[in-house]
Amino acid sequence: MGQQEARHLETDKREGHQHEPDDQLAASPSRRPVLLLDEPFEGLAPAVSETIFRALDRLRREVPILIVEHDLDLVLALADRVSVLDRGRITHEGPAAPLRADRELRRQVLWV
Questions:
Q1: DSSP character for 71?
Q2: What are the pLDDT digits (tens) for 41-65?
Q3: Amino acid 19: pLDDT
Q4: Are residues 47 and 26 in the same domain?
Q5: Is 3 exposed, middle or buried (0-12, 13-18, 19+ CB in 10 A)?
Q6: In terms of pTM, does the model score above 0.90?
Q7: How far apart are CA 57 and CA 79, in angstroms?
Q8: Within the chain, how many helices (H) and strands (E) appear?
Q9: Mean per-residue pLDDT, 28-39
Q10: Residue 68 contacts by C-beta under 8 Å, 6 or more apart in sequence?
């Protein structure tokens, strides 16, 4: 929540108005919806994974998508940017293209 929204919320509270913080965030014109996916391909048949992959590939042009995924080939094919987490710490951030193109870099960064 930005400072302006926080000030507005505090003013509303002092004046007796009740707003849930989520209402304030949803009403903010600077906020875009984001699709969050946790391992969307896990346990799926290859044909189903391919269908979901194609749908996400089309959707990513319209809505930002954050994917947590262990299938590196699939997620790198979809990703514009990559953040690598290791034991709760970000160990790498950057564009996905170098990791897609360079297997040695992928091995160094992702240990695979």
A1: -
A2: 999 999 999 999 999 999 999 999 9
A3: 46
A4: no
A5: exposed
A6: no
A7: 9
A8: 6, 4
A9: 83
A10: 37, 38, 39
Domain residue limits at 3: 1-31
Q: Is the pLDDT of residue 5 over 60?
A: no
Q: State the Cα–Cα distance between residues 66 and 82, nearest whole angstrom.
A: 10
Give one DSSP letter per residue of 18-35, joined into a string: ---HHHHHHH-TT----E
Count of structural domains, the chain: 2
For residues 73 and 21, state if they share a domain: no
The HSE-up count of residue 108 (CA atoms within 13 Å, CB side) is 8
Tokens of 14: 């002092």
Residues with Cβ within 8 Å of 98's Cβ and at least 6 positions away in sequence, in order, are 105
If asked whether residues 17 and 42 sit together in one domain, one would say no
